[in-house]
Fold this protein.
Amino acid sequence: MTLEMRRDPNVFLAGEDVGVFGDCFGQTLGLFAEFGPQRVVDTPISETAILGLGTGAAIVGLRPVIELMFIDFLGLAMDQLFNQVAKICYMFGGNLKVPMVIRLPAGAGFSAGPQHSQSLEAWLAHLPGLKVVMPYSPADAKGLMTSAIRDDNPVAYIEQKALYGLEGLVPEGEYLTPIGQAKVVRCGDDVTLIGWGAMVGQCLEAADLMLKQGKKAEVLDLRSITPLDKTTILESVSKTGRAIVVHEAVRTGGFGAEIAATLAEEGFSLLKAPVVRVTAPDTPVPFSPLLEDEYIPSASKIVEAAYTIFNC
């Protein structure tokens, strides 16, 4: 965000506590001191107002990066999002664009309770006109943010709170990760593990466990939910013949079902076994740390699922 604000004076930030306080999770520390209150805007506690501010600013040529603090609060501004932001470009025949980034911290793991811990990417994937990205690695966090800010379409940038402490190499200077392009982060030929966000880490751990037992799992990081990189998914499954989709969101209506449907419709002949989903259960996110640990999909659960299809 800092690099893009230095590069383009039309980029500005807005949200609750993004200014002097430096964001609820410290994501904007130092930006207020460098860019001032005109470009790092502390807003009232109103998600509808924040999204409305961003929408109007984007229409007239600015490039806002707005934050709703928790994805769980998105419901308060949903009309702005699905009836306005996602539809404006289409309704005006491309004559109006909404180059806006909506930052949405999401996910469980902090005993924050059921109203501050959800993974709701499937909601957003259901809105034509809105791009949805969900990085795992620090490098992609930078690259996808840069691409999202420069995109002429609205982009929901979902950042899982469990990844804020993740360390990794990040390219210096200008760096872009293409939106809509998945990445094979580990090669294998026995099963394809498909994840996004924090679940990529669980897939990598599961691949380590399987390797000790002589099975090589390929790990695929979607990076973008919408648009979906079907080509990379199908190429991987054509090699392995098996697929497990892993997401932290609840099972029913989760985005994993869309991937399973894609494989059934476009890659059925590639499959040696049914597509398996490893997901959170259909319950609110528990507050109890012990229950929350059980709620979040784990590497051991992924391995267990894999061995149900290895003999198919």
